[in-house]
Design goal:
By secondary structure, the protein is α+β, with helices and mostly antiparallel strands. The protein has helices spanning 25-42, 44-49, 60-67, 100-116, 140-148, 163-176, 267-287, 306-317, 330-333, 340-347; strands at 9-17, 22-24, 71-73, 125-129, 153-157, 182-189, 209-217, 226-235, 241-242, 264-265, 298-301, 357-364, 368-376. The protein has a domain at 226-376: 3-Layer(aba) Sandwich (Peroxisomal Thiolase, Chain A, domain 1), CATH 3.40.47. Helices cover 31% and strands 20% of the residues. A hairpin with a 3-residue loop joins strand 12 and strand 13 (368-376).
Length: 378
């Protein structure tokens, strides 16, 4: 059992939603490879002279080997399978209409409320986060608050792939301080618009999905909820995962549409840096509760890359992890940025008996890391 240190708050509800459109590796690669052939043909003379490097084709086998991803859900794939566009077609909506990210959030939030046995009017705090927010203001959280009929207040946060863990920590703290009784943490990750679908090393990575969780005081939570025993955050500056899109883009017309305005990373450097960083962070989290790694029934890790997750879990456990100990959702969802570890929890927690201890952990751009130690109540 975990030591009695606790936040006296619990995750009492959770819900996952994704758009219905599936983009699998085969159709993704067919479009990408046609783009590559056309681009190489357009620049054949430069390539022949050595002035330009030819683009390389991708393959489903390469994607699975590099990441473990087989498919992903996307808001739109008509633009993604168009070799001349390679960008989702998502029409602007009038300001009077619900925004796309708010729509994602509400779908997931309603599922989480149902599990928790709550309704929208019970919510008095909305913490909404994403790796990229659809707009700067008004906060998407406040839009969601209005759509659900919630009370209190709401705000947006963004911390790359650790946003979900940061949101859960903020919600737990707000409940502990008496600033909220029933908090909604929701991650509407609309990632397909900020992925560079022309980048061979990244064109397969991200997928669209939303996840939501209800946080409230443990003594108010339904039976079988997950008590938050502790929260932990860490950040360490790194440029190796970056997206430079922002309100200043239009100020320099020479770089307004440059590739760095989309997701880009130094993948090998990230792998080399994050694996030991995450291993130590998770081990420190466990050690703070006087636990051994084998006393943790489940690790819900950030769903970035199968090879990375497997290696981190292996280093923490000192052996190969089982699929039950460190479940993956990458094969179906792809990398859903800050939603990944929360989706893994939502889809893989209900089989664990009362008293089970689990660790939710995320790591990503920043670098930023977050963890929660959870214990299932009777």
């Amino acid at each position: 059992m975990v030591e009695r240190a606790t936040t006296h708050t619990s995750i009492s509800g959770f819900g996952v939603w994704h758009p219905p459109t599936v983009l699998d590796n085969h159709e993704l690669c067919a479009a990408f490879n046609e783009f590559v052939r056309r681009d190489n043909a357009r620049h054949a003379d430069e390539i022949a002279s050595g002035a330009r490097e030819a683009l390389r084709e991708s393959s489903p086998e390469f994607i699975v080997r590099a990441s473990g991803i087989v498919q992903r859900y996307v808001e739109d794939k008509t633009g993604l399978v168009d070799p001349e566009r390679m960008c989702p077609n998502i029409p602007d909506r009038p300001e009077e209409q619900v925004s796309v990210q708010a729509e994602y959030a509400v779908h997931a939030a309603r599922q989480a409320l149902a599990v928790a046995g709550r309704v929208g009017e019970d919510i008095d705090l909305v913490v909404l986060g994403a790796s990229c927010l659809q707009r700067s203001y008004p906060a998407v959280a406040i839009e969601v608050q209005a759509l659900l009929g919630a009370h209190g207040h709401g705000f947006d946060i963004s911390l790359g792939c650790s946003t979900g863990l940061a949101g859960l920590q903020l919600a737990s703290q707000a409940v502990q301080l008496g600033q909220a009784r029933c908090a909604l943490v929701v991650l509407p990750e609309l990632t397909s618009p900020h992925l560079n679908w022309r980048d061979r090393d990244a064109h397969f990575i991200l997928g669209d999905a939303a996840v939501a969780m209800i946080v409230e005081a443990t003594d108010r939570a339904r039976p079988g909820s997950w008590e938050i025993r502790s929260t932990r955050m860490l950040s360490k500056w790194s440029n190796n995962i970056r997206n430079n899109f922002g309100f200043m883009n239009r100020c320099d017309p020479t770089t307004e549409h440059a590739p760095d305005k989309l997701f880009h990373q130094q993948g090998r450097r990230v792998f080399k840096d994050v694996v030991p960083l995450a291993e130590k962070f998770i081990n420190d989290t466990i050690a703070a509760h006087g636990l051994g790694a084998d006393q943790v029934a489940r690790y819900w890790l950030h769903q970035a890359n199968r090879n990375m997750n497997d290696l981190i879990a292996k280093r923490v456990l000192g052996r190969e992890p089982t699929a039950a100990e460190a479940p993956l959702v990458l094969e179906e969802y792809g990398n859903t940025a800050s939603a990944g570890s929360l989706i893994a929890f939502a889809l893989h927690n209900e089989d664990l008996p009362a008293g089970s201890v689990g660790v939710m952990a995320a790591f990503g751009a920043g670098y930023s890391l977050g963890s929660l130690v959870l214990q299932r109540a009777a």
